[in-house]
Write a structure and sequence with these properties.
Structural class: alpha/beta
CATH superfamily: SGNH hydrolase
Helix content: 40-55%
Strand order of the largest sheet: 2-1-3-4-5
Low-confidence stretches: none
Number of helices: 10
Number of strands: 5
Distance between the termini: 19 Å
Order of helices and strands: EHHEHHEHHEHEHHH
CATH class: Alpha Beta
CATH topology: Rossmann fold
């Protein structure tokens, strides 16, 4: 399971929880308990702050060298965010480059992995006039189009969270300060969607 801070959640800290405080931890817990004889190993390769370009830079060491049977990828919101919180243009990733990077990731394992699961990035902002919200929607829409070209599983987290926001407030699902980092409730939502997909 590879991605940015949503996946990472302190998994590299010496005194943190097993696999980090995030959906890989929850998915692993369920799989290990329900299928103890299947020799399942869940690996968390999330790194906070990563963009899709940064994933490409570490792709061989962190993904290909592990030869995964099933791969989940959740990346993209930092590609957008760096346009707003970083003065260095070289840290930003355009929509076209984001799709190019996602294509490279998919094609690197499409013939060897049993399943590739792409999870959309998400931004739980309700004000559609905000520039970052509009840009995030463009990147997510482009990803929705890309996955149609490949035999991969797509979990549209943006749409799934939007459904939940009709019943729950955004701050129940993500941190109030940024509307990007999930609360444990939000992490459970992601984990459950992955588990339901795997069990099908």
């Amino acid at each position: 399971m590879i991605g940015d801070s949503v996946t990472d959640c302190n998994r590299r800290e010496e005194n943190t929880a097993f696999l980090g405080n995030s959906y890989p931890h929850l998915v692993a817990s369920e799989l290990y308990l329900e299928y103890p004889d299947m020799n399942i190993e869940v690996i968390n390769k999330g790194i906070s702050g990563d963009t899709s370009k940064m994933l490409i830079d570490r792709w061989k060491a962190d993904v290909l060298d592990n030869n995964p049977d099933i791969l989940t990828i959740l990346i993209g919101i930092n590609d957008v965010w760096r346009h707003y919180d970083c003065p260095d243009p070289s840290k930003r990733v355009s929509k076209d480059d984001y799709i190019k990077n996602m294509r490279l990731m998919i094609e690197s394992l499409i013939h060897t992995a049993k399943k590739i699961i792409i999870l959309s990035p998400f931004y739980l902002e309700e004000d559609m006039t905000k520039p970052m919200k509009a840009q995030a929607n463009e990147y997510i829409d482009a990803l929705r189009q890309l996955v149609k070209e490949y035999d991969v599983i797509f979990i549209d987290l943006q749409k799934e969270f939007e459904k939940l926001m009709r019943k729950y407030s955004f701050d129940q699902l993500t941190f109030k300060s940024d509307k990007i980092h999930p609360t444990m409730f939000g992490q459970y939502v992601i984990a459950r969607l992955i588990l339901n997909t795997l069990k099908k």
